[in-house]
Amino acid sequence: MNIEVVRTTSPRPRPEPGKLGFGVHFSDHMFVMEYTTENGWHSPRIEAYGPIQMEPGASVLHYAQAIFEGLKAFRGADERVNLFRPQQHAARFHRSAERLCMPPVPEDVFVEACRKLVSVDESWVPSEDGAALYLRPLTIATESFLGVRPSAAYKFIIMTCPVGAYYAEGFNPVRIRVERERVRAVRGGVGDAKTAGNYAASLRAAKEAKADGYAQVLWTDAATHSFVEEVGTMNVFFKIGDEVITPSLDGAILPGITRRSVIELLESRGTTVTERRVSLDEIVKAHTDGRLEEAFGTGTAAVVSPIKALGVDGKDLTIGDGGVGPMAQSLFDEIAGIQRGTREDRFHWLVPAEG
Ligand SMILES: *Cc1c(COP(=O)(O)O)cnc(C)c1O
User: What is the pTM of this model?
Assistant: First the structure.
């Protein structure tokens, strides 16, 4: 693929190191290409980050044909820049596109576009421990019409943001409320696609949970509200006695790449992870019996997020001693170490940005 590069003539202000936050500062450039039914995907280019033109009739604005990804590039201890598992993100983006009746971006094009954009904005990749360049690929439907059918035109964009260390001040175990009324996703719906509407559907419950002092909600299945599914923007794991469990991908759960990495890592250490349905009753009983040792979320933003308490029907169940469990700690250390280049990349998860 021949990606045209037109460098910006007005570089954007640089954020102060140590004050990067998440998703508030955008780097100088973005990758863009368009799709039409006649020409397929065409005109791949890297240009200055800035506003895009769209008609108000663009169907994404009305019917939410929009999918996205979130992945990171890291500057290693040796200064080289690597992306974490971009092919996995490309494959998921492809599946999301098919679910939403959008033309998939070929996976090799997705990976090449990410690598090229990161190398053009290499100087935006932060070097502080734990900081990263976050990539946000996005496909939106741009055809202007108000009928309900898949759009005939699309835009694929990748933007990037330098983001700070999630745990600059050390791990911060969170309180999570088990949601038993509102619903994010349902089997047969689009819960397993990374699509914008899932987030719109999730905001109200998250807002209510935050008002009550919880960081996020743990969703339960839409039909019975008795099986747990995932947390906000993360998948969830439980350690009950010697068993490590994560809810099986049943169609309503987003198949996280960090989830997969955690499973592969634990299995390489000889710990089997059971992917199965987990009922809230089982979790409450394990807690009562003193066997609920750890619970943690997994996702690209935080890698591993220990849960200190689960709010169930108005009461908090404290997990372990409310601190960071040894499994969550060791998983974080190894994955963050691989990303940073201080631990051996024994699964070949890193892909270099072009030199
Ligand atoms: C992106 C996302 C995750 C985490 O996936 P990763 O690939 O690990 O970043 C989990 N749940 C939802 C709803 C998501 O959108």
Answer: 0.97
